[in-house]
Structures are given as structure tokens and as C-alpha cells.
Amino acid sequence: MGAFIGSKGVNIARLSRLASVRFNLIEYVEDPNELLRVLIPGFRNAGGQLLVDREHKVVVAVVPEKTQTKITNKYAHLAALYEEVTGLSLYFSTPERRDLLLEEVRSGLLRKPRRRRLKVFVSYKWEDAAHNEWVETLARNLRRNGIEAILDRWEVRLGDSFTDYMTSRIGSADVILFIITTRSVAVVEAPPSEGGALKFEMQMATARRTAGENMRLIGIYREGLRPPAHLRDHRYADFRDDSRYAENLRDLIDDLYERRGAPPVL
After folding, report:
1. How far is CA 62 from the centre of its chain?
2. What's the CA dihedral at 62, 68, 25, 142 to 10 degrees?
3. Pairing mode, strands 148-150 and 119-123
4. What are phi and psi of 91, to 5 degrees?
5. What is the pLDDT of residues 225-261, one digit of tens each?
6. 89-93 sheet: strands from edge to edge
7. Is the per-residue pLDDT at 122 higher than 90?
8. What are the angstrom distances between the C-alpha of 102 and each of 86, 98, 108, 163, 176?
9. What percent of the chain has pLDDT over 70?
10. In the sheet that 216-221 helps form, which strands lie side by side, from edge to edge?
11. Domains of the chain in sequence order
12. Checking DSSP bridges between strand 58-62 and strand 119-123, what pairing results, if any?
């Protein structure tokens, strides 16, 4: 499938991989305005309109006030992909505030902070081919939703140091996902002289957490009798049932993007 958007020549298949959006009914998106309608389901049905100011490299998505918060919160990560692909900064506005927002952007009073992708390090035990493929699929699905999933098999080349890779990548990660299996638990709970790379990764993660750094350590329960000792009292993401993979993936992504929502009003 080949498609080009404006003068940037963006391949829709590539964007589909990034954003995890279904393009099975769309072969070409020639206008960047139409791209937002593709990325955000329901945008057109919600009465959304797009205003494009190419001189100032800005797009304002105008949506009714009753749907603005929902669309903005739910699809913020796709908005970041829109900006990356088109080079146009995307703002959401209500019809009442549209003109004021455009004036603030054009005058320089309103500048968008530069977004930084969420970095998620995937820590796992190399096992059989089926397990390793499952881990890679999870990492790919995270990347398709705008999350910078970090996986050793993508980054460590022949001759590279695994220690250097683990030290630098774990040290800069916002989140560390530990894939819980019987073998991975055995490795991280091995005696001091044993354990290897996976145990080293968990030692680094635990050290960062103990030091009070702003880093999350989340267990991904794939199989086994129990989580490891260092995650025993922590809430984990349960991926043991493959029939619920899509649902659990969405819950994980929503949690990573902090889209869980507030508790009900008392």
C-alpha cells in the first residue's frame, strides 16, 4: 500500500505500524487534514473541523465542547504521531475559542512544549522461539501506539556490549516491564553468584527505584506460579490468557499513558 501525504511523502503503511490504526478500507490519504480523521475514529461524526495554517505550521482541530476532553485525552498519543508525520503542530479547541487560539499561536504567545516519547525497557528471559516472539510482538504493539519500547534483539549488534546496553537503556527508561515466567523468576531469585544479565537488569531497576527516581517497574505476568519476590506486592499486568491479549494490551497502554481516569465522585 503506497500513499503520500502532502509534500512529505509519508507512507501510510509506516504510519499504520506506528499508530496501530486499521487502514484496510483506505488506500490513499492525500491531504494531511484527512489524516486526523483517519487516526481519530469518530472525529468526523463528532462534528470535528480542521483549520490549517501552513505558514505557522499549525493545525487546529475544532470539536464540540462536550467531546473535546474525551478526544484530547484518548488520542493524545496519536496527535503526537500526527505532528511527527506532517510537521504541523496539532491543537484541540472548541468553536468558541478557535479564533483566540489561532491568534495566540500566530503571535507566539502560545508555544507547544516539545513532546518526549515514553521510553519502556522490556526485561525478559530468552527462552524458546514462541516465547521470544511473544515478547517481540508485545514490544512492537507498544511502539505502534507511540511508546518507545526498547528490546535487546533490536539494538545489540554483533560485537556490542550487553552490559553497556543494559546500563544506558535501563538508566534512561521511564518504565521497565519485567516479563514474569517460571524461568525468569528463577533467574532473578538465583544465588548471588548466578543469574546473569536478567538479574543484573532487575538489580539496576531496583536500585533506581530505591533511590527514589521517577521510574516505574511493572510486572507482565506471562506464565508461572508466582511473581518474583521484588514484585510480589506490586500490581501486575496479567497476560496469561491469550484470548484477552488485545484487552490487556489496551489496559497496559492506557495505564502507561495515565489514562485510567479519576475515581468516581463521592
Report:
1. 25
2. 130
3. parallel
4. -120, 150
5. 898 888 888 999 999 999 999 999 989 998 898 766 5
6. 49-53, 58-62, 89-93
7. yes
8. 18, 6, 10, 49, 39
9. 68
10. 148-150, 119-123, 175-180, 216-221, 237-238
11. 12-107 (no CATH), 119-256 (3.40.50.10140)
12. unpaired
The number of residues in the chain equals 266
| Angle of the 129-144 helix axis to the 245-256 helix axis, nearest 10 | 50
Strand residues in the chain grouped as ranges (E): 49-53, 58-62, 89-93, 119-123, 148-150, 175-180, 216-221, 237-238
Burial classification of residue 153, based on how many CB atoms lie within 10 Å of its CB (0-12 exposed, 13-18 middle, 19 or more buried): exposed
Residue with cell 487546529: 60
Instruction: Tell me the per-residue pLDDT of 208-227, one tens digit each, with 9 for 90 and over.
Output: 988 888 899 999 999 998 98
Structural contact between residues 123 and 117, judged by C-beta atoms closer than 8 angstroms = no
Cell of 206: 531496583
Amino acid letter for position 38: V
Would you state the cell numbers that stand for residue 156, as one nine-digit string? 545489540
